[in-house]
Amino acid sequence: MASSSTWAQDVITCDLCDKPTHQFCNNCNVTVCVDCIDKHVESLKSQMHDIVPFKERKKRLVFSACASHANQKGLRHCQQCDIPICFKCAIGPHSGHTIKDMRDIVQQIKEEINRETRLIVFLTSRIESNGAKIDQKISDMTGEFEEMEKKGENLRRIWHEEVDTIFNVLQSTIRTTKEKGISALRSHQSRLQDKGTKLTLITQRNKEILESNKVSDVTGYKQKVKKIVFPMDFDVKIPSLKTKACPGSELNIELGEYKATLTQTSISTLTEENPILIERKSLDTAKVVACISSGIKPLGPIICIGTHEAWVRGQDKFIRRIDLHGFLKSRISTQCKLYPNDISVTKHGELIYSDYDSRTVNIVTKGMIETLITLPRGWYPGGLCCSRSGDILVSMGNLDKSHNKIVRYQGRAAAQEIHKDKHNQPYFRIGKYGVYVEENNNGDICASDMNAKKVMVMDKTGKVRFRYDGTPARRIKPFFPACIATDSLSQIIVTDVNNDCLHLLDQNGQFLRCVDNCGLLSPVGLSVDSEGRLWVGCQESGVIKVIQYLE
Against a cut of 0.70, is the pTM above it? Predict the structure, then answer.
């Protein structure tokens, strides 16, 4: 049984009196009840009427009345007068005018309406589609600019660190120069005091002779002052601190041989043109810009700090911090029985090192050593890398040297292990050597497998992207990789101990070239400073060569 609301919707009412009805006049297109049928027919006597049940109704055009003949329908349209007319008008007042059938006019107009409606629907769809695209563009742009802001803040930090490094080196140079000058003056002062003491003794002896009555004392006198070489005047030249500041353009600092320059280049704003990132390019010929004698033999891994300093380790328990001029800045005494396996620096600038015997990775904070990671029983640490995200990558091997793997640590917890492919085959060759590891800008993990004598690069998930065995370089001796590094161009650099050179690859494993013109002998240690220069440690001589290879 239908509800009352549904029943009310089904009721059909008369157009003349609002009574319920089921009758319909097809000719007039109106609903009429039984009582109103006669009234309807009487009101339009001159017109034919077709009264049928409502369900049998036919929808027909309802024509307007003729303006001149009230009892006639306007079945025609006078094009000249633009009014509906009846047949009498067509042969009468409008004779000779252009006249069309009103049905054709209606059909023509309806076709125009249909065309317009389809166009509107199409345009509406386009507007909605474009609106959705604009929303997506707004979302994408918002994300990109947020990322740009993050990068800007990171650059702010890096630039501040660069300025701090410049002034740290400046202050260090000032202190060193002062200490050397004071030491030289004190040495000269000591020589003067020594001469003064000798002269005082001669004066006392001369007085004694003058007061003596013994002939032998007087005749035995020999002049001694002529034999004393009196020190010449001595002075230490104090270097002047020269500065030149052009705000918004260039800042220069010069103290003796030390020079530093900060340059600001004007570029168009983002609203004027799209920003373009100009990357550094490789020099045609690499060149040595500094040669540092570390005094450490044999020399092991190196990790740069800023532009002018680096941590280095030899085969003792000390890790030393030296500057570009070879001065020892500080020294950390580790608890290692022999020496640290590898060293690295966290993104906050803290030194970390791996201790094979204690199976730990340790961090040095304000001169204090703390255990950061303790490896599982049976595993011993080798290479280290601090990623940009703050994770620490540790290569490790087991006691019988039958397995090697790389483990990613987030804090003190192991978050990822990389050691086997999907076929359960080991990535790394077993042997007596460890694995050096480095992270590239795209997140790839670059490993130098000294046992396999290959470089292997894996993506973030640990899937191997490619291996490099040194063949494209066409060296005389077999490829023997040691320390590995990456640069701002995402290039991969690895030392080749056997061939006294460096191999450069792009991030996809394509061999680019060898750096073999810088007098590298048994290069092992390798790091890139914040100016993009390579610090390469020669194992046997203990010499560190700073190499410029980018424009």
Answer: no
